[in-house]
Design brief:
- The termini are far apart.
- By secondary structure, the protein is mainly alpha-helical.
- Strand 5 and strand 6 form a beta hairpin.
- It has a domain at about 80-175 and about 220-300.
- The radius of gyration is 26 Å and the shape is globular.
- The chain has a three-stranded antiparallel sheet with strand order 1-3-2.
- The structure holds a DNA duplex.
Length: about 775
DNA sequence: CATTCCCGCCACCGG
DNA sequence: CCGGTGGCGGGAATG
């Protein structure tokens, strides 16, 4: 049916009168901020009225009738237009809520087949403007991550020597027509080989996490990767003008030097059209014509933001830019922010990672089972905050789940788990005091005050009394944002601008932990130099993934990695249960490092220290439960899952950036004007303060030693590796946080009781968490 | 004819 | 086995 008439009135259920106009309307509406909220409602509402106008415009010449469809020429269905419509639905810089994208809905609303939407989404994904949340659903990140992504892409592009490749190709053209065979290939091969671009196959650099998802095996290569590479070409080439031909040749060269079919070339070009259309819609490029000796050919010019080499600067800029909206929103609705926005947002972030998705699902499943037998979790109700209350309950379930024998998961997990536990131990080591202060009542108490009291020095000395709070810690300047959740916890986010690698964590009760250490990194030493980029390396060792290289096996590796990742997570859970009793509190961490993870902390412990601490280990937290952020409001399912998600990015940033942005803003604001803070509600203040602390820190950080990353061919492979390591990282991060966490004195003053909760016995709470479901209710 | 690129078949993949 | 994804390329619309 479709073939004949473009418009598909028939197929569409009569109920939904989608008209072309509605789409237009959407575009218009896009301008307004509220679009998002209304989008859902809109579908029903806006069916009728405007149709007439739009149609008329387009099709005046025809008598009004069915031709309406006829008109919708190709152009109307063009990907570009479609993309515009799509983009119009979401704000460039979504600050808070998120925009979730449901493919079905969108397809319906935009009146296109789903297949078409994939095209758009895929390229957006390559730019990290969206990320897949789950089947059929994506999260809209907007342009928050854009500059980081571009930066990352540029870096990779440089590493790949695209510039040279382009040169070569151009030269060739002059020499002979075009056509790549023989020598050309050889040459390319040489280039490529030398550069080891092999990693390129999956340039996920940009924080792309999907590969991590384990879901994607080989498929994802194409559009997404092509898109990234294409963008790289722009970023790398000087004139910033790229012709499809050149782009296609380069990309083909990368993929397989051997076969250069014409058909392949053609297909590639076709895909490029798809990509260019969306990039054009994004206004990142525009079509131009280049006249060369050979003649005039169509090409595209980069019109997007320039990306600076300096990573740091760029990052900062980006961040700040992002901030405003978020901040304002944040500030306005103080209470709400805390309650609604914050939690929600965070949750979303947490959920984003593909790996999480799986977890979530599985967990969900488990949870359901368990739910039937409700574990009466913590009396969350006690908590003032609704959101929290909701959260804890769910969280409580997690442990319960863990206890239940999880089907197959546990087995697989086991191996990995072992590793994890090990790493956990290591981490533990680094936290000397943890054991020492088992009671850490503070933890129970939501407030961070104790922590706050501490000097902001943030760095090393650790000893924060307890609170899981997080801090901007260490000189390492690794920024983290931690989000605490627990029955009694509240969320805190910190961000340290210096490095832009904010991490979000959700921590749920902690045994007291103090430490100085954080560094426990085993790996640090070796990779210190590259610290900037590859967190992976360090991690790798533990995981022992073959770093090997790159080229060929990547895919397999990825997969395996992904699996491992999952396993790790699972493992974590299982570990928890084992720990449960022992731990008074447990951590629920969800650290999400945005960008690269720096381990400079390598300050690290000496081995000896570790050894000393090791004794303490058992206490520790191996049980970090990760992840999970329940989102009460939105989708319950996603929320409850414990998982940890880390986005490793060497080069990239994570989706979380949004959250990060928020934080940053806050810090900025607060820092600039502390006094203003007082106007806010306590809860808000708390929140703010934390940030402030972070902000304060900023200046301090010299930063930046981490620096430019050496271009190493391996980078790619590393990134992939990151995934595996996540578990470890997470744990590390968490520990670090804990260890470092402390706030400045002033902060403490300001901070009011955040979440005043009656002091419940911590233990009880904890126990509840761990307790298997089926408690009281049943 | 050349350039664009829509359309939708169909293979994959995870559930 | 199912339904979401998305590679892929024919061939239609456009220039």
């Amino acid at each position: 049916q479709a073939a004949t008439s473009p418009s598909e009135p028939r197929e569409i259920p009569p109920a939904d009168p989608w008209t072309p106009t509605s789409n237009l309307k959407m575009l218009i509406s896009a301008a307004s901020p509220e679009i998002r909220s209304r989008e859902r409602s809109r579908e029903l509402s806006n069916n009728t009225r405007e149709v007439p106008q739009a149609k008329h415009c387009l099709q005046e010449h025809l008598p009004g009738d069915e031709y309406e469809k006829s008109q919708p020429n190709r152009k109307e269905k063009s990907l570009r237009l479609l993309c515009h419509k799509f983009l119009a639905r979401y704000p460039d810089y979504p600050s808070t809520e998120d925009s979730f994208i449901c493919l079905d809905e969108v397809a319906e609303e935009l009146n296109v087949e789903r297949r078409r939407i994939y095209g758009i989404v895929n390229v957006l994904e390559s730019l990290h403007m969206v990320s897949r949340l789950a089947k059929n659903r994506y999260v809209w990140h907007g342009r928050h991550n854009l500059s980081k992504t571009l930066q990352a892409l540029k870096k990779v592009g440089e590493e790949n020597r695209y510039t040279q490749q382009i040169q070569i190709i151009k030269k060739r053209e002059y020499e002979h027509e075009f056509d790549f065979d023989g020598e050309r290939n050889e040459e390319k091969a040489r280039y490529f080989g030398s550069s080891e671009h092999s990693d390129m196959s999956f340039v996920e650099l940009p924080g792309t996490e999907f590969h991590a998802a384990s879901v994607n095996s080989r498929k994802d290569k194409s559009l997404r990767v092509m898109s990234q590479k294409f963008v790289m070409l722009f970023l790398v080439s000087t004139p910033q003008v790229v012709s499809l031909e050149v782009a296609a040749k380069i990309l083909i060269g990368e993929d397989q030097l051997e076969d250069l079919d014409k058909s392949k070339f053609k297909t590639k070009i076709r895909r490029f059209y798809d990509i260019t259309n969306v990039l054009i819609s994004l206004k990142l490029i525009e079509k131009v014509h280049v006249t060369e000796e050979r003649g005039r050919k169509p090409a595209f010019k980069w019109t997007g933001p320039e990306i600076s080499q300096d990573i740091q600067d760029t990052k900062l800029e980006t961040t700040y830019a992002t901030c405003p909206p978020a901040v304002s929103a944040f500030i306005h609705s103080k209470a709400q922010c805390l309650k609604n926005l914050f939690p929600l947002r965070e949750r979303q972030n947490f959920i984003r990672h593909p790996s999480l998705i799986k977890l979530v699902k599985s967990i969900e499943k488990d949870r359901r089972k368990i739910q039937s037998a409700p574990a009466s979790p913590v009396k969350i109700s006690a908590s003032t905050d609704q959101n929290f209350s909701a959260f804890p309950s769910k969280m409580a379930q997690v442990p319960a789940i863990a206890k239940h024998p999880l089907e197959g998961q546990s087995k697989k997990a086991r191996k990995i788990g072992m590793k994890l536990s090990q790493s956990a131990l290591e981490c533990t080591l680094s936290l000397p005091e943890a054991v020492a202060k088992p009671e850490a009542p503070c933890t129970t108490t939501p407030t961070l005050q104790p922590a706050l009291t501490q000097p902001l020095s943030a760095c090393t000395p650790s000893h924060s009394s307890v609170s899981p709070v997080i801090l901007p810690h260490t000189f390492s300047s690794v920024p983290y944002a931690i989000h605490l959740h627990s029955s009694q916890t509240y969320t805190v986010t910190t961000y340290s601008p210096s490095f832009m690698k904010p991490v979000l964590c959700a921590v749920t009760g902690i045994k007291s932990i103090n430490s100085k250490a954080l560094n426990k990194t085993t790996t640090d030493e070796r990779d210190s130099q590259t610290a900037t980029d590859d967190p992976t390396k360090s991690l790798t060792a533990k995981e022992k993934l073959p770093i090997k290289s790159q080229t060929s096996s990547q895919r397999g590796l990825k997969r395996s990695q992904a699996l491992q990742e999952n396993n790790l997570i699972k493992r974590f859970r299982s570990d928890e249960k084992s720990l449960d009793t022992s731990l008074t509190f447990f951590l629920c961490g969800y650290p999400i490092p945005l960008t690269q993870y720096v381990h400079d902390n390598k300050a690290g412990f000496s081995n000896t220290e570790k050894a000393e601490m090791s004794s303490l280990q058992h206490t520790t937290y191996s049980s970090l439960i990760v992840g999970v952020s329940p989102r009460t409001t939105y989708e319950p399912k996603a929320v409850n899952i414990p998982a940890f998600h880390i986005t490793p990015l060497n080069i990239m940033l994570s989706p979380t950036s949004t959250g990060a942005a928020l934080v940053v803003n806050n810090s900025c604001l607060s820092s600039s004007n502390t006094s203003s803070v007082q106007n806010l509600s306590p809860s808000v203040l708390n929140f703010t303060l934390h940030h402030v602390a972070a902000g304060v820190q900023v200046p301090v950080n010299p930063v930046l030693q981490h620096v430019p990353v050496p271009l190493q061919p391996k980078s790619v492979s590393h990134s992939s590796e990151n995934v595996h390591l996540q578990g470890e990282k997470v744990s590390k991060n968490i520990l670090q946080y804990i260890g470092h966490g402390r706030l400045s004195g002033k902060v403490s003053a300001v901070i009011p009781p955040c979440v005043p909760r009656e002091p419940q016995e911590p233990q009880t709470a904890t126990e509840n968490f761990f307790r298997t479901p089926g408690g009281p209710n049943t």
